[in-house]
């Protein structure tokens, strides 16, 4: 479903059919049929004004309420934090969001998720999704195209997180065999990997401020990507390489190459994920 209001005109044939049925039963005069048609249009118009929609069904609203209740049980008083690198989310938070709403998301993209799910979740507090569920410090900056199916996006990030932890564990095992002590990985799992994702990390209720009020060097994107804790840019790519057609993604790629030059020992560069 699109989430747009159902056009009032679509109600007219249905209401006229009811009117014809009533007239056939009671044999009222023809002018009553005209009155019925007018009433049918009036009812359709009222339904349109009242905002009958096809997108956010009662079940979606109930799921949003349930999701908010679950989060607020763990974090009863979510608070705003400084925009930028401190508003990353974990792979677990991203995955759990998708799992909670996958029935409604289907093959839809981030535009749908942002409008239909993220905005209603964060509206009462006027926070970013990250601030609502619990923010963390960025490790990976995510560059992506909002038109990519959200399911594909989540799958790509989860796969990256899993491979990252697997590589860390293999490196740790190798160090142990060589007699080198390394306790930094420990019992870490892919769910703990941290990603800065604009739709989840930016406050969608204060977009202009997140964009630096026109100054890209003050934008949350730039701050997060240039944070000392950010070690790479993860670009979620599709078969058409759509991210490379977006101005912001190209800006992020440019900043990534600059960081590769300025921080060769601590920044891994551009990682393509699919």
Distance between the termini: 26 Å
The order of strands across the largest sheet is 1-3-2-4-5
Q: Label the structural class.
A: alpha/beta
Supply Rg. Answer: 25 Å
Please, what is the oligomeric state?
single chain
Shape: globular
Helix content: 40-55%
Low-confidence stretches: 1-6, 51-56, 180-187
Assess the beta-strand content as a share of residues.
5-15%
Please tally the β strands and state the result.
Answer: 5
Description:
With 274 residues, the protein is α/β, with parallel strands linked by helices. It contains eleven helices and five strands; from the N terminus they run H-H-H-E-H-H-H-E-H-E-H-H-H-E-H-E. Strands 1-3-2-4-5 form a five-stranded mixed sheet. It is globular. The model is unreliable at 1-6, 51-56 and 180-187 (pLDDT under 50).
List keywords for this structure.
disordered N terminus, five-stranded mixed sheet, 11 helices, 274 residues, 53% helix, alpha/beta, single chain, 7% strand
Give a nutshell description of this structure.
The protein has 274 residues and is of the alpha/beta class. It contains eleven helices and five strands.
What topology emerges from the helices and strands here?
Layout: H1 11-26, H2 30-49, H3 58-74, E1 89-90, H4 91-105, H5 110-122, H6 129-133, E2 140-143, H7 150-177, E3 194-196, H8 198-201, H9 207-210, H10 220-225, E4 232-236, H11 247-262, E5 270-273
Parallel strand pairs: 2-3, 2-4, 4-5
Antiparallel strand pairs: 1-3
């Amino acid at each position: 479903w699109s989430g747009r209001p159902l056009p009032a005109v679509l109600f007219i044939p249905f209401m006229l059919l009811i009117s014809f049925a009533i007239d056939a039963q009671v044999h009222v005069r023809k002018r009553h049929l005209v009155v019925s048609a007018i009433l049918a249009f009036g009812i359709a118009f009222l339904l349109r004004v009242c905002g009958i929609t096809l997108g956010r069904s009662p079940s979606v609203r109930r799921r949003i309420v349930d999701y908010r209740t679950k989060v607020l049980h763990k974090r009863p008083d979510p608070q705003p934090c400084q925009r930028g690198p401190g508003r990353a989310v974990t792979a677990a938070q991203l995955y759990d969001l998708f799992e909670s709403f996958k029935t409604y998301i289907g093959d839809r993209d981030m535009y749908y998720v942002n409008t239909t799910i993220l905005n209603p979740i964060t509206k009462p507090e006027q926070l970013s999704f990250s601030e609502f569920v619990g923010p963390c410090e960025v490790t990976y900056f995510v560059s992506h195209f909002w038109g990519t199916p959200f399911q594909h996006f989540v799958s790509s990030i989860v796969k990256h997180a899993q491979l990252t932890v697997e590589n860390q564990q293999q490196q740790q095992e190798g160090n142990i065999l060589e007699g080198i002590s390394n306790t930094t990985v420990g019992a870490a799992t892919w769910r703990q990997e941290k990603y800065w994702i604009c739709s989840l990390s930016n406050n969608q209720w204060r977009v202009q401020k997140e964009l630096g009020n026109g100054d890209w060097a003050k934008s949350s994107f730039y701050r997060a990507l240039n944070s000392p804790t950010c070690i790479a840019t993860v670009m979620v790519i599709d078969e058409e390489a759509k991210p490379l057609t977006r101005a912001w993604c190209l800006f992020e790629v440019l900043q990534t190459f600059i960081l590769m030059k300025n921080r060769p020992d601590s920044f891994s560069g551009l990682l393509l994920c699919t």
